[in-house]
Amino acid sequence: MKAIAYLKGSHLSDPHAFCEVQLDPPPLEPHDLLVAVEAVSVNPLDTKVRAGQVAVPDEVRTLGWDASGVVRAVGSAVTLFAPGDAVFYAGTFTRDGANAELHRVDERLVGHKPASLSFAQAAAMPLTSLTAWQLLFERLGRVPGDLAEQGTLLIVGGAGGVGSVLIQLARRLTAMTVIATASRPDSRQWCLDLGAHQVLDHSRSLVEQLAALDLPPVTHIAALTHTQRHYADLARIIVPHGHIALIDDHDFFDAVPLKAKSVSLHWEMVFTRALFKTPDMIEQHHILNRLAQLLDQGLIRCTLNEVFSPFNADSLRRAHERVEQGGLPGKVVVARDAQPIASL
């Protein structure tokens, strides 16, 4: 099968950063699906792994763990899917990624593709949606559909992939006041369009901006990016007995400033269930199916912003370049279908 391999520790200026190779189709374990890949989302994780900033096993040859496609074959213990099913999923970086014609993934990490979305749109959603769902409903302890419990959620980095979904989940499935941060006019409008009640400029003091607004106290914070830069403000903003959840990377994190307020600190890592094969790994399947229903019902919208096609090394290089540039609300996808973004 054709695949797009990557050079570990490479910069995009390196002509060998990506190359098209021939690999044997992967053997299936009992719970595995073999998926014919139609589209793959490019996340910051992909760029960090390629650049050597995040370690993965040496045997991982391809990137891309956020994908959509059609099931071609199933393992001996598979019960959730059959050949011909359209699926979307975020896999695990302990295996080869989906930058290939065929990809194997454990069925318990996979959801049925939203019927209303194209493959490119569907590929934009799994990793960020799972992160946002787990952060809000598992780490921060909110209950989906509970519109009685109040509170205020501050989302640092609201226009990014996770923030874009988190704004929508918090607005549609909770009664929380949602405050996002964004620094540019287009990303500010993006957050408002997704449902944020207010948008702060994270290039300025968050404390001063909140003080100027007539808003309820901040009870929950989702720190999605540049947490260290904003940490002093976040520690001042959060109420006593509040909750802060993080997703960004840190060599060291000092939780001491949170002690006086008895603030709870939570980490969200979307691959935890897959990495440790936790007993509740199938919960990822259930969450993705719930998200597919929300997307098909129009309660949340797809956050795809840019598509690169065809599915080859050059498109993948350009997609990585776009993600590394930053500043783009929503998600970047590489797809086999060259459908114009305007029609998505």
Automatic annotation (TrEMBL):
Pfam families: ADH_N, ADH_zinc_N_2. It comes from the Bacteria. SUPFAM superfamilies: GroES-like, NAD(P)-binding Rossmann-fold domains. Keywords: Metal-binding, NADP, Oxidoreductase, Zinc. CDD domains: AL_MDR (cd08252). InterPro entries: ADH-like_N, ADH_Zn_typ-1, ER, GroES-like_sf, NAD(P)-bd_dom_sf, Zinc-ADH_QOR/CCCR. Gene3D superfamilies: Medium-chain alcohol dehydrogenases, catalytic domain, NAD(P)-binding Rossmann-like Domain. Residues 10-334 form the Enoyl reductase (ER) domain. PANTHER family: QUINONE OXIDOREDUCTASE. Belongs to the zinc-containing alcohol dehydrogenase family. Quinone oxidoreductase subfamily. This is Zinc-type alcohol dehydrogenase-like protein. It comes from Pseudomonas protegens.
